Amino acid sequence: MGSVSELTVGGVICTGTHGTGANYGIMATKVLEIDLITAAGEQVTCSHRENTDLFSAACCSLGALGVITAVTFQCVPAFKLHQRQWSCTLDEVLDNLDEHIASSEYFRFCWVPHTEAVVMYQVDRTTKPVQESSSWFWDYVVGHQCLQFAYWLSSFFPSMVGFINRTFFNLLCSKPKERINTSQKILNFDCLFQQYVTDWAIPREHTATVLTELRTWFQENPNEAAHSPVEVRFCKGDNIMISPAHGRDTCFINIIVYRPYGKLIPYAKYWTAYENIVKRVGGRPHWAKAHKETGKQLTEMYPEFDKFCEIRKKVDPQGMFLNKYLERILCMDNGAAGDAKVIH
Protein backbone atom coordinates (compact mmCIF):
# COMPACT_ATOMS: atom_id res chain seq x y z
CA MET A 1 0.00 0.00 0.00
CA GLY A 2 1.19 3.50 -0.82
CA SER A 3 1.39 6.52 1.44
CA VAL A 4 -2.23 7.55 0.82
CA SER A 5 -5.40 5.59 0.17
CA GLU A 6 -7.42 8.27 -1.69
CA LEU A 7 -6.50 6.73 -5.04
CA THR A 8 -8.30 4.76 -7.73
CA VAL A 9 -7.47 1.14 -8.47
CA GLY A 10 -6.66 2.05 -12.07
CA GLY A 11 -4.42 4.87 -10.91
CA VAL A 12 -2.28 2.80 -8.56
CA ILE A 13 -1.82 0.16 -11.24
CA CYS A 14 -1.04 2.54 -14.10
CA THR A 15 1.58 4.57 -12.20
CA GLY A 16 3.52 1.88 -10.34
CA THR A 17 2.34 2.95 -6.89
CA HIS A 18 4.37 1.26 -4.17
CA GLY A 19 4.66 0.88 -0.42
CA THR A 20 7.57 -0.65 1.44
CA GLY A 21 8.78 -4.13 2.36
CA ALA A 22 11.67 -6.15 0.99
CA ASN A 23 9.42 -9.12 0.21
CA TYR A 24 6.74 -7.06 -1.53
CA GLY A 25 6.70 -5.59 -5.02
CA ILE A 26 4.79 -2.54 -6.20
CA MET A 27 1.01 -2.80 -5.79
CA ALA A 28 0.54 -4.02 -9.38
CA THR A 29 2.45 -7.23 -8.59
CA LYS A 30 -0.66 -8.37 -6.70
CA VAL A 31 -2.84 -8.05 -9.81
CA LEU A 32 -4.01 -11.39 -11.27
CA GLU A 33 -6.12 -10.20 -14.19
CA ILE A 34 -7.07 -6.97 -15.99
CA ASP A 35 -9.92 -6.18 -18.39
CA LEU A 36 -9.24 -3.33 -20.83
CA ILE A 37 -11.35 -1.46 -23.37
CA THR A 38 -8.99 -0.58 -26.21
CA ALA A 39 -9.16 2.40 -28.56
CA ALA A 40 -11.04 0.18 -31.03
CA GLY A 41 -13.77 -0.41 -28.44
CA GLU A 42 -12.79 -4.03 -27.90
CA GLN A 43 -12.72 -5.61 -24.45
CA VAL A 44 -9.54 -7.56 -23.84
CA THR A 45 -8.70 -9.72 -20.83
CA CYS A 46 -5.07 -10.21 -19.91
CA SER A 47 -3.35 -12.13 -17.12
CA HIS A 48 -0.29 -14.26 -16.38
CA ARG A 49 -1.87 -16.94 -18.61
CA GLU A 50 -3.67 -14.93 -21.30
CA ASN A 51 -2.26 -12.09 -23.44
CA THR A 52 0.81 -12.16 -21.24
CA ASP A 53 2.79 -9.38 -22.95
CA LEU A 54 -0.22 -7.07 -22.80
CA PHE A 55 -0.64 -7.98 -19.12
CA SER A 56 2.98 -7.09 -18.35
CA ALA A 57 2.46 -3.75 -20.06
CA ALA A 58 -0.97 -3.10 -18.52
CA CYS A 59 0.27 -3.62 -14.96
CA CYS A 60 2.05 -0.26 -15.28
CA SER A 61 0.53 1.34 -18.37
CA LEU A 62 0.36 5.09 -17.59
CA GLY A 63 -3.21 4.91 -18.90
CA ALA A 64 -1.85 4.66 -22.45
CA LEU A 65 -3.26 1.25 -23.40
CA GLY A 66 -6.97 1.71 -22.78
CA VAL A 67 -9.66 2.01 -20.13
CA ILE A 68 -9.37 -0.45 -17.25
CA THR A 69 -12.84 -1.83 -16.51
CA ALA A 70 -12.07 -4.69 -14.12
CA VAL A 71 -9.16 -5.82 -11.97
CA THR A 72 -8.67 -9.03 -9.99
CA PHE A 73 -6.33 -8.60 -7.02
CA GLN A 74 -4.66 -11.26 -4.89
CA CYS A 75 -6.02 -10.42 -1.43
CA VAL A 76 -5.60 -11.59 2.15
CA PRO A 77 -7.90 -11.18 5.16
CA ALA A 78 -7.70 -7.81 6.91
CA PHE A 79 -4.97 -7.62 9.55
CA LYS A 80 -3.46 -5.28 12.14
CA LEU A 81 0.09 -3.96 12.26
CA HIS A 82 2.41 -3.05 15.11
CA GLN A 83 4.65 -0.07 14.32
CA ARG A 84 7.76 0.70 16.37
CA GLN A 85 9.39 4.05 15.76
CA TRP A 86 12.71 5.36 17.02
CA SER A 87 15.46 7.77 15.99
CA CYS A 88 19.10 7.35 15.11
CA THR A 89 21.69 8.95 12.82
CA LEU A 90 21.91 8.54 9.06
CA ASP A 91 25.24 6.71 9.35
CA GLU A 92 23.78 4.29 11.89
CA VAL A 93 20.98 3.23 9.57
CA LEU A 94 23.14 3.08 6.43
CA ASP A 95 25.93 1.09 8.10
CA ASN A 96 23.43 -1.65 9.01
CA LEU A 97 20.89 -1.19 6.24
CA ASP A 98 20.46 -4.83 5.18
CA GLU A 99 19.90 -5.90 8.79
CA HIS A 100 17.31 -3.16 9.30
CA ILE A 101 15.46 -4.05 6.10
CA ALA A 102 15.34 -7.72 7.14
CA SER A 103 14.28 -6.89 10.70
CA SER A 104 10.59 -6.36 9.92
CA GLU A 105 7.94 -7.03 7.31
CA TYR A 106 7.55 -3.37 6.34
CA PHE A 107 10.63 -1.25 7.00
CA ARG A 108 11.15 2.38 6.03
CA PHE A 109 12.98 5.39 7.35
CA CYS A 110 12.71 9.16 7.07
CA TRP A 111 15.81 11.33 7.02
CA VAL A 112 15.61 14.96 8.15
CA PRO A 113 17.53 17.10 5.59
CA HIS A 114 20.26 19.45 6.84
CA THR A 115 20.67 17.17 9.88
CA GLU A 116 21.98 13.70 10.71
CA ALA A 117 18.63 12.68 12.22
CA VAL A 118 16.67 9.68 10.98
CA VAL A 119 13.34 8.25 12.11
CA MET A 120 13.11 4.48 11.55
CA TYR A 121 9.89 2.47 11.35
CA GLN A 122 9.65 -1.28 11.92
CA VAL A 123 6.20 -2.64 11.12
CA ASP A 124 4.96 -6.22 11.57
CA ARG A 125 1.65 -8.05 11.73
CA THR A 126 0.05 -8.57 15.10
CA THR A 127 -3.11 -9.81 16.76
CA LYS A 128 -2.78 -7.39 19.68
CA PRO A 129 -5.58 -4.85 20.31
CA VAL A 130 -5.50 -1.39 18.77
CA GLN A 131 -3.15 0.98 20.62
CA GLU A 132 -2.95 4.66 19.67
CA SER A 133 -1.60 7.65 21.56
CA SER A 134 -2.26 10.54 19.22
CA SER A 135 -2.33 14.13 20.48
CA TRP A 136 -4.38 16.85 18.81
CA PHE A 137 -1.99 19.50 20.10
CA TRP A 138 1.28 17.86 19.04
CA ASP A 139 0.05 16.20 15.85
CA TYR A 140 -2.15 18.99 14.47
CA VAL A 141 -1.30 22.28 16.17
CA VAL A 142 2.47 21.77 16.29
CA GLY A 143 3.08 19.14 13.60
CA HIS A 144 0.83 20.75 11.00
CA GLN A 145 -0.10 24.37 11.68
CA CYS A 146 3.11 25.52 13.39
CA LEU A 147 5.27 23.65 10.88
CA GLN A 148 3.42 25.20 7.95
CA PHE A 149 3.87 28.69 9.43
CA ALA A 150 7.57 28.05 10.06
CA TYR A 151 8.16 26.92 6.47
CA TRP A 152 6.21 29.94 5.20
CA LEU A 153 8.43 32.20 7.30
CA SER A 154 11.54 30.46 5.94
CA SER A 155 10.52 31.45 2.41
CA PHE A 156 11.74 34.95 3.38
CA PHE A 157 14.75 33.64 5.35
CA PRO A 158 15.90 30.38 3.67
CA SER A 159 18.70 29.83 6.18
CA MET A 160 15.99 28.97 8.73
CA VAL A 161 15.14 25.64 7.06
CA GLY A 162 17.84 23.60 8.77
CA PHE A 163 16.88 25.05 12.17
CA ILE A 164 13.19 24.32 11.50
CA ASN A 165 13.92 20.73 10.47
CA ARG A 166 16.00 20.09 13.61
CA THR A 167 13.51 21.77 15.94
CA PHE A 168 10.45 19.90 14.74
CA PHE A 169 12.34 16.61 14.70
CA ASN A 170 13.28 17.15 18.36
CA LEU A 171 9.71 18.13 19.26
CA LEU A 172 7.87 15.40 17.38
CA CYS A 173 10.09 12.49 16.38
CA SER A 174 13.09 12.09 18.66
CA LYS A 175 11.43 9.81 21.24
CA PRO A 176 10.46 6.15 20.66
CA LYS A 177 6.79 5.51 19.89
CA GLU A 178 4.59 2.49 19.24
CA ARG A 179 1.26 2.12 17.47
CA ILE A 180 -1.08 -0.78 16.73
CA ASN A 181 -3.90 -0.38 14.24
CA THR A 182 -5.41 -1.77 11.04
CA SER A 183 -2.97 -2.10 8.15
CA GLN A 184 -4.11 0.90 6.12
CA LYS A 185 -3.92 3.25 9.10
CA ILE A 186 -0.35 2.20 9.83
CA LEU A 187 0.92 2.07 6.25
CA ASN A 188 -0.59 5.40 5.20
CA PHE A 189 1.55 8.50 5.69
CA ASP A 190 0.25 11.96 6.65
CA CYS A 191 1.32 14.25 3.79
CA LEU A 192 0.34 17.38 5.78
CA PHE A 193 -0.15 20.26 3.32
CA GLN A 194 0.51 21.12 -0.35
CA GLN A 195 3.88 20.03 -1.63
CA TYR A 196 6.05 19.34 -4.66
CA VAL A 197 7.23 15.74 -4.74
CA THR A 198 9.64 13.66 -6.76
CA ASP A 199 10.36 9.99 -6.11
CA TRP A 200 13.06 7.96 -7.85
CA ALA A 201 13.78 4.24 -7.83
CA ILE A 202 17.39 3.10 -7.58
CA PRO A 203 19.05 -0.32 -7.21
CA ARG A 204 18.83 -1.11 -3.52
CA GLU A 205 22.60 -1.62 -3.21
CA HIS A 206 23.19 2.06 -4.06
CA THR A 207 21.03 3.47 -1.24
CA ALA A 208 23.98 4.54 0.92
CA THR A 209 25.83 6.09 -2.03
CA VAL A 210 22.87 8.26 -3.04
CA LEU A 211 22.03 9.46 0.47
CA THR A 212 25.66 10.17 1.30
CA GLU A 213 26.04 12.26 -1.86
CA LEU A 214 22.80 14.06 -1.11
CA ARG A 215 24.01 14.83 2.42
CA THR A 216 27.19 16.32 0.96
CA TRP A 217 25.09 18.50 -1.35
CA PHE A 218 23.04 19.74 1.62
CA GLN A 219 26.25 20.63 3.43
CA GLU A 220 27.41 22.62 0.42
CA ASN A 221 24.00 24.31 0.05
CA PRO A 222 22.87 25.07 3.62
CA ASN A 223 20.29 27.65 2.54
CA GLU A 224 18.46 25.34 0.13
CA ALA A 225 14.80 24.71 1.01
CA ALA A 226 15.07 20.96 1.55
CA HIS A 227 12.01 20.28 3.65
CA SER A 228 11.57 17.25 5.87
CA PRO A 229 11.44 14.34 5.37
CA VAL A 230 13.38 12.44 2.74
CA GLU A 231 11.35 9.23 2.81
CA VAL A 232 13.17 5.97 1.99
CA ARG A 233 11.29 2.77 1.17
CA PHE A 234 12.14 -0.64 -0.31
CA CYS A 235 10.46 -3.00 -2.79
CA LYS A 236 11.13 -6.38 -4.34
CA GLY A 237 12.05 -6.47 -8.02
CA ASP A 238 9.46 -7.51 -10.63
CA ASN A 239 9.06 -8.27 -14.36
CA ILE A 240 6.47 -5.59 -15.23
CA MET A 241 7.69 -3.85 -18.38
CA ILE A 242 8.01 -0.25 -17.20
CA SER A 243 7.76 -0.74 -13.46
CA PRO A 244 10.40 1.37 -11.68
CA ALA A 245 11.38 -1.87 -9.90
CA HIS A 246 11.73 -3.88 -13.12
CA GLY A 247 14.47 -6.49 -12.83
CA ARG A 248 15.98 -5.38 -9.52
CA ASP A 249 15.33 -5.03 -5.81
CA THR A 250 14.66 -1.36 -5.38
CA CYS A 251 14.99 1.57 -3.02
CA PHE A 252 12.56 4.45 -3.55
CA ILE A 253 13.77 7.84 -2.31
CA ASN A 254 11.06 10.49 -2.10
CA ILE A 255 11.94 14.18 -1.61
CA ILE A 256 9.57 17.09 -1.02
CA VAL A 257 9.33 20.86 -0.96
CA TYR A 258 6.19 22.13 0.75
CA ARG A 259 3.98 24.98 -0.45
CA PRO A 260 3.01 26.59 2.87
CA TYR A 261 -0.36 28.33 2.48
CA GLY A 262 -0.01 27.64 -1.23
CA LYS A 263 3.12 29.74 -1.64
CA LEU A 264 5.54 28.72 -4.36
CA ILE A 265 8.93 27.74 -2.91
CA PRO A 266 11.78 27.44 -5.47
CA TYR A 267 12.79 23.81 -5.87
CA ALA A 268 14.45 23.46 -9.29
CA LYS A 269 18.03 23.56 -7.95
CA TYR A 270 17.28 20.88 -5.32
CA TRP A 271 15.42 18.69 -7.82
CA THR A 272 18.19 18.90 -10.41
CA ALA A 273 20.92 18.04 -7.90
CA TYR A 274 18.93 15.06 -6.61
CA GLU A 275 18.11 13.79 -10.11
CA ASN A 276 21.75 14.02 -11.16
CA ILE A 277 22.75 11.91 -8.16
CA VAL A 278 20.18 9.16 -8.73
CA LYS A 279 20.74 9.03 -12.47
CA ARG A 280 24.41 8.21 -11.91
CA VAL A 281 23.38 4.92 -10.26
CA GLY A 282 20.64 3.98 -12.74
CA GLY A 283 17.69 5.81 -11.21
CA ARG A 284 14.20 5.65 -12.68
CA PRO A 285 11.41 8.18 -11.99
CA HIS A 286 8.18 7.27 -10.22
CA TRP A 287 5.49 7.71 -12.88
CA ALA A 288 3.08 9.56 -10.56
CA LYS A 289 5.66 12.11 -9.40
CA ALA A 290 7.32 15.10 -11.05
CA HIS A 291 10.14 14.42 -13.51
CA LYS A 292 11.55 15.91 -16.74
CA GLU A 293 12.52 12.75 -18.62
CA THR A 294 11.71 12.16 -22.29
CA GLY A 295 11.25 8.97 -24.26
CA LYS A 296 14.86 8.89 -25.41
CA GLN A 297 16.13 8.99 -21.81
CA LEU A 298 13.56 6.49 -20.57
CA THR A 299 14.57 3.97 -23.25
CA GLU A 300 18.00 3.86 -21.63
CA MET A 301 16.51 3.42 -18.14
CA TYR A 302 13.99 0.66 -18.87
CA PRO A 303 15.14 -2.50 -20.70
CA GLU A 304 11.64 -3.16 -22.11
CA PHE A 305 10.58 0.42 -22.78
CA ASP A 306 10.66 -0.01 -26.57
CA LYS A 307 8.60 -3.20 -26.27
CA PHE A 308 6.01 -1.33 -24.19
CA CYS A 309 5.85 1.39 -26.84
CA GLU A 310 5.29 -1.19 -29.58
CA ILE A 311 2.39 -2.70 -27.63
CA ARG A 312 0.94 0.78 -27.12
CA LYS A 313 1.12 1.45 -30.88
CA LYS A 314 -0.66 -1.83 -31.56
CA VAL A 315 -3.60 -1.26 -29.21
CA ASP A 316 -3.91 2.51 -29.82
CA PRO A 317 -2.47 3.30 -33.28
CA GLN A 318 -4.24 6.69 -33.52
CA GLY A 319 -3.10 7.91 -30.11
CA MET A 320 -6.57 8.23 -28.61
CA PHE A 321 -5.22 7.82 -25.06
CA LEU A 322 -2.22 10.10 -25.41
CA ASN A 323 -1.98 13.51 -23.77
CA LYS A 324 0.83 16.09 -23.62
CA TYR A 325 2.67 14.23 -20.87
CA LEU A 326 2.45 10.87 -22.65
CA GLU A 327 3.49 12.47 -25.93
CA ARG A 328 6.66 13.71 -24.21
CA ILE A 329 7.64 10.37 -22.74
CA LEU A 330 6.30 7.94 -25.35
CA CYS A 331 6.50 9.77 -28.67
CA MET A 332 10.19 10.00 -29.35
CA ASP A 333 11.46 11.67 -32.50
CA ASN A 334 10.48 9.05 -35.08
CA GLY A 335 11.23 6.48 -32.43
CA ALA A 336 9.66 3.33 -31.15
CA ALA A 337 6.75 5.06 -29.47
CA GLY A 338 5.20 5.48 -32.86
CA ASP A 339 4.01 7.91 -35.50
CA ALA A 340 0.49 8.22 -34.12
CA LYS A 341 -1.65 11.15 -35.14
CA VAL A 342 -2.72 12.21 -31.68
CA ILE A 343 -6.46 12.68 -31.22
CA HIS A 344 -7.31 15.50 -28.76
The value of Rg in angstroms is: 21 Å
Shape: globular
Poorly predicted regions are 334-344
The beta-strand count equals 11
Oligomer classification: single chain
Order of helices and strands: HEEHEEHHEEHHEHEHEEHEHHH
Instruction: Give me the secondary-structure category.
Output: alpha+beta
Indicate the mean pLDDT: 92
**Strand portion:** 15-25%
What percentage of residues falls in helices of 4 or more residues? 25-40%
**Looking across the biggest beta sheet, what order are the strands in?**
7-4-6-5-9-10-8-11
Per DSSP, the total helix count is 12
Give a quick account of the main beta sheet: strands, pairing sense, barrel closure: 8 strands, antiparallel
Distance between the termini: 33 Å
Which descriptors apply to this entry?
about 350 residues; alpha+beta; 8-stranded antiparallel sheet; 3-stranded antiparallel sheet; 12 helices; 11 strands; globular; disordered C terminus
